Amino acid sequence: MPSEVTVRPIAIDYGEAAPEIGWYHEPGMHNVLRILSRTQPIPVTVRILNPLPAMDDRKALANAAREAILGALPSSRRSAHL
User: Fold this and answer.
1) Element (H, E) at 57
2) 23: Cβ contacts below 8 Å, ≥ 6 apart
3) Which DSSP state fits 49?
4) pTM value?
5) What pLDDT tens digit does each residue of the chain (82 aa) get?
6) How far apart are the first and last CA of the chain?
7) What is the Cα–Cα distance from 79 to 71, expressed in whole angstroms?
């Protein structure tokens, strides 16, 4: 990645609704229809994190971003994102 590119991870926290919002366990269309049929609002907290240092290794950069995001989430919800 060019050194002039800044990467800023963003942590999106759906609170207690996080397990319901994630769609890794079902087809995308099913998830969309299920979420749109909700009658309760979905709480969302967005945290824009500090920029990461420039790295040439994209896998190391992805891991650093993942670690920063996990560190920004409340500990009670970290295991849902592993």
Assistant:
1) none
2) 30, 31, 32
3) P
4) 0.74
5) 566 788 999 999 998 888 878 777 788 888 889 889 989 888 899 999 999 998 889 999 999 999 999 999 987 665 554 4
6) 25
7) 11
